[in-house]
What we know:
25 strands, FAD/NAD(P)-binding domain, 510 residues
Amino acid sequence: MHRHPFTNSLWRQHNAATPYPRLESSVSCDIVVIGAGIAGLVSAYELQQRGKQVVLLEAAEIGRGTTGHTTAKCSVQHGTVYSKLIRTFNQETARLYYEFNEQGLAYLRQQVEAGFDIDFETKDSYLYSIDGSSQLVAEREAYAQLELPGGDATEEVKAVLPFEVKQAIVIRDQAQMHPVKYLHELANRFVAAGGRLHEKTRATEISSGPRPIVTTSTGRRVQANQVVVATHYPFNDIRGLYFSKFEVERSYIVACETEQSVPDGMYLSVDQPSRSFRTFKEGDKTYMLVGGEGHLSGHVTETRSRYDRLDRFAHDSFGAKKASFRWSSQDLITLDHLPYIGQMFSREPDVFVATGFAKWGMTNGIAGGLLLADRLTGRPNRFNDLLDPQRSKLKPADVGQFLKTNLDTAVQFVKGSLERPGTLDDLQLDEGGIVQVDGKKVGAYRDLDNECHLVSTRCTHMGCTVNWNDAERSWDCPCHGSRFDTKGNVLEGPATQPLAYERKTDVPKQ
């Protein structure tokens, strides 16, 4: 028996959805959408509804990506973003960002009224601080300046949380849902409207020029008038230097059963370490979902303790049982904290992108899908300029973040080449690490059957040295966030090619 639980998302349990076929032959269509997450499915569904012939390609299966690994808080309250946007840009930009996300939330409500069965619940959304925070004060002032539907909620939160709180603010009438159910509702309706959806079909290349061609890992081709890249991290990131414009952060979530009374609403602390929590009811069970413990992706090997700390918080604060489910998620944070949604490259007018939602992909993803659908059908959309991926006026804060992000990437390149490897004999059952085998440095994982799985340590994206992630049993790239399983298969991009792999069975018993 393994000593540590394997990760599994609550949202992916009891998934009885009908699988969609692989793409087995080359096709032509009006628009090809790459990525069946929330932004990809909303844009594909809307485009198909508007008379376009759409082909949607998903590298894995619906719900396997970031949308299926969130807390699924559908809120326009995005941490302390509004005070940050006022400070970096101006009040008008901050208000536009709010209205953009409010549009996504309103669209979701309309779908629920139209019959989408997604465990939708209206909840208030709270930010709080245990120690007191100048950031929270600035955010409360931003709410007043922007006339957002909320404000101070300190006494309200003090009355319901089981620990001391010094400050709190609220935005009223937000929502939470079941994200994988939402994806399947969109997928089913997209296909019913005539769209083509293909799972286990990884796009690896997009040709430039009129009528671009998307090529898959099996050599199939899809030619279209336009291409939408909605793969969370855009796999075609070399052109346009997108790889230099993101900070990639990984964070963790546990779902713990509780029989105690729990506070209503969705909560996020602005203190460090941050804690995010909300409840989810399934039948007669109530789960407390607790998230946090974020760090730069690929920078931490010992990640199991992250889950343990969230587990302990749920137990100590809400009397919750030991976590029934634990999973993690990866987020892309842009230089100026606004997503990139629109035309991807200045000289390629037929390739579009939606990415960089930070930790707020529910409303940003929905609104981003709507924005792209408008762009590709010629409808006006007042948020085009706000989120234009080619916006070029860098603020001083953007320059600083650009230098920090890319200096860290350079450090990771050098660090990976200098680290000294261990040996296969060092690995216990269910352990991984970088070791020396036959004079070569490789990544190795010894499974529960005492077989060793060896992979190249060179990320196939840009050559950075991957690091072991012990909670996820994965190899994670610290430069741009690509992730691979123990046999080298791609779990998350931007990488599209697997790591070189071999299996060794003639290893000493541990």
